[in-house]
Automatic annotation (TrEMBL):
Domain of life (superkingdom): Bacteria
SUPFAM superfamilies: 4Fe-4S ferredoxins
Cofactor: [4Fe-4S] cluster
InterPro entries on file: 4Fe4S_Fe-S-bd (IPR017896), 4Fe4S_Fe_S_CS (IPR017900), PorD_KorD (IPR011898)
Residues covered by region (Disordered): 1-33
GO MF entries: 4 iron, 4 sulfur cluster binding; metal ion binding; oxidoreductase activity, acting on the aldehyde or oxo group of donors, iron-sulfur protein as acceptor
Keyword terms, alphabetized: 4Fe-4S, Iron, Iron-sulfur, Metal-binding, Repeat
Protein name per the record: Ferredoxin
Residue ranges constituting the 4Fe-4S ferredoxin-type domain according to the UniProt record: 31-60, 61-90
Entry annotated with the keyword Metal-binding: yes
Biased composition regions of type Polar residues, renumbered to the chain: 1-29
Amino acid sequence: MTIQESIKNGATISPGGNSKDNKTGSWRQGQRPKWNKEKCLNCGVCFHFCPEEAIIFKDGKMVGIDYTYCKGCGICAHECPRKAIEMVKED
């Protein structure tokens, strides 16, 4: 069975690459990533793994996290080789 066959009539599937159309920051369930600039290598691993493009890079350096789009999945923290991102309790 294909995905299309498993969806009931009237349902829609959004096209890929639409994360900026949906402000997924409201999906967070109690945790958010916290970035430690001093530990950061600016390697871009977090940027490449983030499914919501919430990691902000400018001129080859990480400058922050866009919490409007960060859904708190923790992939960035898990993949960071220097542990410069940690998941903390949401304020």
